[in-house]
Amino acid sequence: MLRRYLSNITIFTMNFAITFWTLTVFYGSIEIIHPIRWDWLTSLMEYLAIPVTTQNVVATLSIITTALPATLSRTRLMKKYLLWDDKATLPSPEEKERLDKIIYTVKEKAGLQNKNFIIYIGRLENIVNAFAISSNEIIITKNLYDTFNDKQLTGILAHEIGHIQHGDVKNNSMNWSIDLTSTIIINIIYGVKCLVDLICGIPILGWPFYLLSWLLSAIIFICNWVFDLPAVIINRYSSRESEKNADLYACEIGLSEEIYEAVNEITKNNIAVKNEQKLYTTHPERQARLKNIERYIEEHKSTN
User: Fold this and answer.
1) Each residue's pLDDT tens digit, 7-63
2) What is the DSSP letter of 90?
3) Is 183 exposed, middle or buried (0-12, 13-18, 19+ CB in 10 A)?
4) Can you point out the beta strands (E) in the chain?
5) Which of 67, 120, 118, 116 is nearest to 91 (CA)?
6) How many CA atoms lie within 13 Å of 223's alpha carbon, on the beta-carbon side?
7) What is the per-residue pLDDT across 186-213, written as a single tens digit (0 to 9) for each?
8) What is the pTM of this model?
């Protein structure tokens, strides 16, 4: 538990720092062209007794822009967005009856009989997925609900409850929002560069903008490869570790066969990725996940 807690703190701190420096480059570039002295910002800095200098303005804006999405990711607003994005609704009486039986089995195995879990059905077509969106709410897609048997669904819900019990939901949502912030900033810079490049094509008038275009290209390169790429790799690694631990959680509460069948089914159409692409995947490879569960079953045969 302590190791996982320290790992989450470390990953969040690294993500925050990487996005902060991306934003510092972005706001610093704006500050060079035209000083940022918005009234609300200077009033806030004066209230906090922060001297209104170039460095402080850029740092304050970078901190606010990094922290705000991370804070919003913990609100009900994010949950409502996820429900809307997946067209998720509460299950019908027939669906609820089936899901109640399955979730009761998981809760009994996990010793969580007193905890109330709410399951939503995502109505997006041709999507087979399940994910937790809060400390007691889970979305499973209609396609998954229809194609998986009760044993497989038991493994899936045990896996998602594992994410909840490990605190992955709040950690992943904060890391995702921070990473998304830097990606949006980079896309804004790229959009501005495209406009500058169009102006560069205008005879005589456009040539002074070549320098600005080159500067924006340098900023994009720095943000993408020096700052954003490490953030992406860190987030993907964190995601793979949390997926592996959620599989093991299902095993630990006595549902190893269920999670094995579920993983085997949900990953059956996965395509093997090249070694250089493994850094960017959010889930461990199919064989790695199955072998991890098999290893747990083998090691705990004598205790069953």
Assistant:
1) 777 777 877 888 888 888 888 888 888 888 999 999 999 999 999 999 999 999 999
2) P
3) middle
4) 88-89, 118-122, 130-132, 137-141
5) 120
6) 27
7) 888 889 888 888 888 787 777 778 888 8
8) 0.81
For residues 129 and 11, give the distance between their C-alpha atoms in angstroms, rounded to a whole number: 25
Residue whose C-alpha is closest to residue 239's, from 296, 172, 153, 287: 172
Contact (CB, 8 A) for 194 and 298: no
Token output for 271: 């395509």
Phi-psi domain of 284 (left: phi exceeds 0; alpha: psi -120 through 50; beta: other):
beta
pLDDT digits (tens, 9 = 90+) for 253-286: 999 999 999 999 998 877 766 666 777 888 889 9
C-alpha span between 122 and 242 (Å, rounded): 22
Q: Residue 29: left if φ>0, alpha if ψ -120 to 50, beta else—which one?
A: alpha
Look-up: residue for tokens 């080159």? 214
- Interstrand relation of 118-122 and 137-141 (parallel, antiparallel or unpaired): parallel
Question: How would DSSP label each residue in 200-213?
Answer: HTSTTTSTTHHHHH
Q: What is the pLDDT of residues 101-118, one digit of tens each?
A: 999 999 999 999 999 999
SS3 string, 122-157, reads: ECCCCCCCEEECCCCEEEEEHHHHHHCCHHHHHHHH
- The three-class DSSP label of residue 118 is strand
Round to whole Å and give the CA distance between 278 and 185.
Answer: 26
